[in-house]
């Protein structure tokens, strides 16, 4: 096979990106920065835009701008969501498609002054949970304590793949963040930040704007072919 043919084959690769490209699904206010919880006191609480908050009697959940001593750092921005037993729900514009892998990522933690860590995170298709993360089915490690007594943040990730004959096809997706608080018994609070959701249909995507890494791979292949061709001569 001539070098010209091989070179042409590599050029074709520039137009194709390998399958398995995950596309982000839009989430409004994913890091709970809107609105800004104003005021002169710390911490300051408020209700997050684009999320529906439900609290049973005696429970309060929402968004808060924590004290600078609450955590060593926050995953994204200056505010986080919290649940003392209630839920924060957002219904998305996306619906379930066939043969698609959905991956939900939520950063979780707890305040140093809170009690037990009892998260309850769900991705719903209609009213059916397709992803459910909790202590009994975690999406990552539990928060650990830092030397100063604050807790770390952990990225909890879990995926679900729909089938070609999935009965949930067309159902609207929604995200629910909550905690199994023991009201009146335990000062439980789960905190959330930087929520994201991606969809991967596994289809071959064609692009005329390949990633920079693709050029590196092709260049390496051409160099390797040139070296081999020189030795074969």
TrEMBL record:
Domain of life: Bacteria
Residues in Ice-binding protein C-terminal domain copies: 210-230
Chain ranges passing through the membrane: none
A Pfam family this chain is assigned to: HpiC1-like
Coiled coil (UniProt feature): none
Official protein name in the record: Ice-binding protein C-terminal domain-containing protein
């Amino acid at each position: 096979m001539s070098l010209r043919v091989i070179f042409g084959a590599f050029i074709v690769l520039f137009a194709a990106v390998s399958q398995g490209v995950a596309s982000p699904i839009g989430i409004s206010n994913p890091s709970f920065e809107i609105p800004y919880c104003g005021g002169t006191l710390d911490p300051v609480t408020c209700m997050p835009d684009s999320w529906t908050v439900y609290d049973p009697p005696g429970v309060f959940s929402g968004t808060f701008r924590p004290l600078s001593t609450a955590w060593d750092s926050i995953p994204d921005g200056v505010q986080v969501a919290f649940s003392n037993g209630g839920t924060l729900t957002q219904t998305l514009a996306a619906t379930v498609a066939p043969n698609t892998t959905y991956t939900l990522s939520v950063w979780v933690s707890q305040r140093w002054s809170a009690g037990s860590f009892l998260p309850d995170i769900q991705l719903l298709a209609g009213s059916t949970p397709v992803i459910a993360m909790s202590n009994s089915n975690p999406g990552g490690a539990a928060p650990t304590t830092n030397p100063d007594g604050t807790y770390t943040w952990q990225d909890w990730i879990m995926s679900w793949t729909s089938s070609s004959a999935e009965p949930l096809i067309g159902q609207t997706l929604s995200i629910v963040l909550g905690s199994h608080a023991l009201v009146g018994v335990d000062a439980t609070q789960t905190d959330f930040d930087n929520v994201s959701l991606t969809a991967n249909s596994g289809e071959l995507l064609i692009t005329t704007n390949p990633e920079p890494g693709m050029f590196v791979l092709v260049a390496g292949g051409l160099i390797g072919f040139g070296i081999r061709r020189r030795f074969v001569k």
